[in-house]
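Q: What residues go here?
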């Protein structure tokens, strides 16, 4: 799509008249009309205002959305996934789950951020992968190759102990590094792994986390 169509579409989606949009980004109605006719495109300062107003990146406004990858967790990001600074502008380096209102959301990432940022974080990830692959020796668990940042409320499964007691090990409000892996022997159960600075956890479960069983919870 071209800038003119994108602006028209976003303006319509936000139920704004040309006049109203013009007022919000400090231009005349004629300027908005010229953008939408394809006669001109907004200048850099106005693009920034439009980006903030419509919550899309400048690249999207210019018709060439970037192929962005979060430097923290590695997920590929659409505009709606990108993190924000305190003033509402985008920080295109990080996704919104890793970075919000000008700061990292994850405690362990924050700590590593203070120690030296991304490299230290990658080192930490590599260390955890190494530990999963060398310390646990779990039958059927394939080699771990990557870990993603996962939100606690998403992976905090409830296990039933042999005595019938139900337990959870994670904190819904924390984030962990983890992954889901197919069992090497096939079958309908897969492995879930999760870790942070303090522990490694391996469990198995059926589709959608049903009938989870804890395999290992190991302090680091
Ligand atoms: Zn991220």
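A:
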């Amino acid at each position: 799509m071209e800038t003119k169509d994108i602006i028209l579409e976003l303006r319509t989606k936000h139920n704004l008249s040309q006049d109203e949009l013009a007022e919000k980004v400090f231009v005349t109605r004629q300027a908005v009309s010229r953008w939408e006719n394809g006669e001109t495109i907004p200048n850099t300062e106005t693009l920034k205002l439009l980006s903030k107003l419509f919550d899309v990146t400048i690249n999207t406004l210019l018709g060439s959305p970037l192929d962005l990858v979060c430097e923290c967790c590695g997920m590929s990001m659409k505009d709606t996934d990108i993190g924000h600074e305190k003033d509402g502008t985008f920080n295109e380096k990080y996704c919104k789950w890793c970075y919000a209102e000008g700061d990292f959301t994850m405690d362990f990432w924050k700590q590593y951020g203070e120690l030296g940022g991304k490299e230290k974080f990658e080192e930490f990830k590599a260390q955890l992968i190494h530990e999963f692959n060398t310390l646990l020796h779990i039958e059927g668990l394939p080699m771990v190759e990557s870990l993603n940042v996962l939100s606690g409320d998403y992976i905090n499964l409830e296990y039933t102990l042999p005595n019938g007691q139900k337990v959870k090990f994670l904190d819904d409000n924390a984030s962990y590094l983890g992954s889901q892996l197919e069992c090497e022997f096939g079958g309908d159960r897969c492995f879930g792994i999760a870790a942070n600075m303090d522990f490694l956890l391996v469990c198995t479960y059926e589709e959608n986390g049903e009938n989870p069983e804890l395999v290992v919870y190991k302090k680091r």
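A: Context that may help when evaluating the design: The domain at 3-103 is CATH 1.10.260.40 (434 Repressor (Amino-terminal Domain)). Residues 70, 72-73, 75, 94-95, 97-98, 149 surround zinc ion (CB under 6 Å).
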